[in-house]
Amino acid sequence: MNNLLMLFLLLVSNSFVTFSLTSKQPLANIAIHKVVIDIQESACITAYPIIMDYKHDDIVWVNVVVELAEPSEADWVAVFSPANFNASDCYSESDGDVRKAPYICTAPLKISLLYFLLAGCIVNPKAPLYPRLAQGKSWDQMAVTWTSGYNIDEATPFVEYGWIGQGRNLSPAETLTFSRSSMCGPPASTVGWRDPGFIHTSFLDNMWPNTMYDYRVGHRLVNGSIVWGKSYSFKSSPSPGQDSLQRVIIFGDMGKGERDGSNEYSDFQPGSLITTNRLENDLENFDIVFHIGNLAFAEGYISQWDQFTAQIQPVASRKAYMTASKDPFDGSFDETGRGDLQKLWQKYKVDIAFYGHAHNYERTCPLYENKCVDMERHNYSSSVMGTIHVVVGGAGSELSSFPGLNPNWILYQDEVFGFGKLTAFNHSSLLFEYMKSSNGCVYDSFTISRDYKVVKPSL
After folding, report:
1. What's the mean pLDDT when you consider all of the chain?
2. Quick one: which H or E segment has residue 163?
3. pTM of the model
4. H or E stretch including 344?
């Protein structure tokens, strides 16, 4: 967790590590456990400001200046957390692996070639961070989750909330964490491990429908004082059956990016920040986010989850941010998967199915038994009689090419970063739009209109 971060900067020459300068992401191949100490008296690293929490900011930019007599293109600078690790804490990548002089046995949070500016994300130790919202188990419940350095024996976590400008309510929070031993294997249990701190969740109950609330998370210390997080606001859900405008953002495979230009071990999500920035700038025009799979692409490096939650915080702290851990199919409309599910979709009258994993955008006609049941392209009325399949996996990860086949049930394809938006105007009218992250413009759309009635499954 970033609020346990201690800054530690290391200068290393490529003669002591193993990687290839010809790879797309050379720093992903650094053999961190093979680094050895070779102090150069002429080398100097300066970081400022020295005190990183003087304004109680969640994120502080740190300027790093490196002076080196004989710099190499392969030299690099990194931020480590915590800064006080030692060789006795090293874990082997595999049983029976005996290593010599493992001076560094944990992956850096950030890493940069010397020709890039490195900026660290430093915060007040143990302070609550990264609040994120999620719709609760009922329409009138909102879940608030955040991260801190406080275990329950140090402080009691809670949320203060209420109507904007009105009285305050208090809601207690649960506290969880996990250990290295709970990881399924390396690198999460070895060089990728980092203490996650403590994860708190509070459930705000009996919310009034379509009402603006403000909230802030807090920790009551044993001495009675309270450590507060920042204040945020959100709009609660409508009541079931309420005729109201509802706007849903939906996408998959966004990942994360580094705003300071530093490198990551798996830096293959070039569009992630483009999509995040677009959503942050468009907060007033949607109500909830569905991130339907492939979230941070952390790949066993725990610190990457902190970077992901930090990146989405401007959105997730104000809009319910719903997630799924896996994509259902591998690729674009897997034939076998669709065959298994088509009867189920038909039974329950599923109009639209969304997918990720394939990093692009694709839309079909309404399909049943692999055939178009309606040749209309943009405006559907009454019962659709089939399922429209939509791939929205182009939110950030490297884009996927289409296989070259062009079946007649494909209506639209695009290989650019983007996301989907569903707008329910009332009980009878639904609009889907595919929007490009770069400019927010709509490049594909369709509507479904029909008289409202309770849809019952077919017998």
Report:
1. 80
2. strand 155-163
3. 0.84
4. helix 335-347
